[in-house]
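#structure-requests
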Amino acid sequence: MSQTYTIVSPSDAALKPPPDVIPDFQDPFTVRPYWIMTASVGLVTTGIILALRLYTKIAVVKKCRWEDYMCCLGFIFFASFIAQVFEVVDAKGGAHQWNVTNREMEQQLFFANIEDMMYSPAVGFIKISIILLVLRIFCPVKRDPFYWALQSLNVLNTIFYTVYFIIPFVVCQPRKKIWQPQTPGKCLKVFDLYIASAVFNVCSDLVMYSAPLWKIWHLQMSKGQKLGIISIFATGGFAVGFAILRLIWAILLVFNADFSYVKMQANVFGAAELACGIICSCLFVLPRLYRHLTASPPYNSEEYRLRRYKKLASSGRRELEQSALGDVHRKEEERNPWDKDIETAAVLPVPLRRERENPR
């Protein structure tokens, strides 16, 4: 979250430079290129993968679920977060603060506050999407401790990120003091709240991504199948890593007054974390799209069944027509009885499929 500083510099710099350092307002060193690269790759990659997910759900499975809507909301807030950080970058965000003017620093603090508002719902919706997907795959019928643990984490995430969405609105009274520190008023200890948010983020990521691995490893299936499913959750491991890096830079903000430089590095890790979360949420659906695109039997298409029906009806061979349609439905069931309902059947373990077929 945003932090206030005492502006002490004779040359209109937002922070007093170190000894023997002359402020450079024209072409200072900045981490802007790293931010642009991370934001561009993250936004384009997640946009493409989310589009493939929606195509699969709408055109192939023909059914969207709550986790799909949550993922879309997460992507919208992720894009909003990136847009606000670019506003910070336009005000020399990423440069050392002694190379930033007071006016530019006000602009940075203003958009940094909005950026914090966008981050909390983005990470919150992404985590809800992943948890709902894990629950639907691993707990289709049975309500065991694993199910209730993840449901509890879902509720806790919802409450926590809702609160941290509201905090940036009320962090300072009056609000103008957020971007104009010299304004009379009072502010919360925003860096303490910022660190608390980062710590909770790391802990919930660890629980969310590690719990399914424990469930998978105790299933009766080959090691190859286990490793195949675990590889999907490996993307979540990258999200945890970036969350830990973001926590480290949040702690650095407490001991380093160079807000403009340090906060931008934390934003780079935050954007990477959000992108990895969206990718992990979408990877479970892509195998269903792959099977749809590589399906070779012609009887798997509605067009083929309709053409076959008209041909048999025109020849008056009703009995053959019924026999042919029966064979089509039977072959579809033999091919994969989960195609009509479960879009993640390609990665669903056999024991879980049997549990869906024969609920206790």
